């Protein structure tokens, strides 16, 4: 065996171990980040509007079921060209909507999207979904995209009548 051959095999052996080490490290990071932050979406509903309307709102409960903070950075829906986070705020005797660019939930935190509070605005709707139909709502974070089905209904009280 020549010294060059021995060195070549040794270098090849080392490169394989380095590659394997990086692969294990990358997989470990991927698994830990997926397990660390998990968004829950529950009791989702979309406000029923007349067929001529091109916008509506979506409500429900969001929860961070993971063990690290989770930041919602965007949203989408199956019926709207644009879905954005908004909050209704009282200014004097007027209520106005303010865009929310991101929303961070602490581990275990639950946030309620409700009328006159935080909510999702669905705009650019070509055909308003009928009462009782289903709409897919997705929330985006740096880690993931979480989707759930929302029921189209007139108000929050109707939600309780769907799940007996």
List key phrases describing it.
164 residues, alpha+beta, Immunoglobulin-like, 2 domains, 10-stranded mixed sheet, 2 helices, 25% helix, 45% strand, disordered N terminus
Tell me what the structure shows.
Strands 1, 2, 3, 4, 5, 6, 7, 8, 9 and 10 form a 10-stranded mixed sheet that branches. The model is unreliable at 1-36 (pLDDT under 50). The protein has helices at residues 3-36, 156-162; strands spanning 39-47, 55-64, 70-77, 82-91, 94-99, 103-105, 110-113, 118-123, 134-141, 145-153. 25% of the residues lie in helices and 45% in strands. It has 2 domains: 1-36; 39-157, PCu(A)C copper chaperone (Immunoglobulin-like, Sandwich). The chain has 2 helices and 10 strands, in the order H-E-E-E-E-E-E-E-E-E-E-H. The longest helix has 34 residues, at 3-36. It is globular and about 45 Å long. The protein is of the alpha+beta class and 164 residues long.
Compile the SSE list and pairings.
Blueprint: H1 3-36, E1 39-47, E2 55-64, E3 70-77, E4 82-91, E5 94-99, E6 103-105, E7 110-113, E8 118-123, E9 134-141, E10 145-153, H2 156-162
Parallel strand pairs: 1-10
Antiparallel strand pairs: 1-2, 2-7, 2-8, 3-6, 3-9, 4-5, 4-8, 9-10
Molecular shape: globular
Q: CATH homologous superfamily name of the largest domain? A: PCu(A)C copper chaperone
- Supply the helix-strand structural class: alpha+beta
Output the number of helix runs: 2
Q: If classified by CATH, what would the architecture of the largest domain be?
A: Sandwich
In CATH, the topology of the largest domain is named Immunoglobulin-like
Helical fraction: 25-40%
